[in-house]
Write a structure and sequence with these properties.
This protein is mostly helical. 55% of the residues lie in helices and 11% in strands. It has 4 helices and 2 strands. A two-stranded antiparallel ribbon has the order 1-2. Helix 2 packs antiparallel against helix 3.
Length: 110
């Protein structure tokens, strides 16, 4: 007897990244529509995570190329323009080079 979709969903929801990869392999050939959707959802999440890792890695290349400087800051702004609405700006200065921590801090990953 096959597992219920709710049980498989719980497995995916409570799994770490490596376990999700294993679950995708295990349930990837399922013919149940609900499980197919779960596999697609978590495959997309892993793809987004990998893309974000690549983006962070590319930022670290810039940091390494400019390692002669004591600090490197990232600046971002948001708003429709100086005449339309208030503009907001944010600056982040971190010495953190742990890729997983940078991913956690990343607005695109949140």
């Amino acid at each position: 007897m096959e597992e219920k979709i709710s049980a498989v969903k719980d497995l995916f929801e409570n799994a770490d990244e490596n376990t999700v990869r294993e679950l995708i392999k295990e349930y990837g050939a399922s013919e149940k529509a609900g499980i197919i959707k779960l596999v697609e959802k978590y495959t997309k999440q892993l793809d987004k995570l990998e893309a974000e890792r690549m983006r962070v890695e590319n930022m670290l290349v810039f940091e390494k190329e400019n390692s002669i400087y004591a600090n490197i800051c990232g600046i971002d702004e948001a708003g429709r323009g100086p005449l339309a609405v208030i503009r907001l700006a944010g600056i982040v200065n971190t010495r953190e080079t742990n890729q997983e921590e940078l991913l956690r801090l990343s607005a695109k990953y949140l």
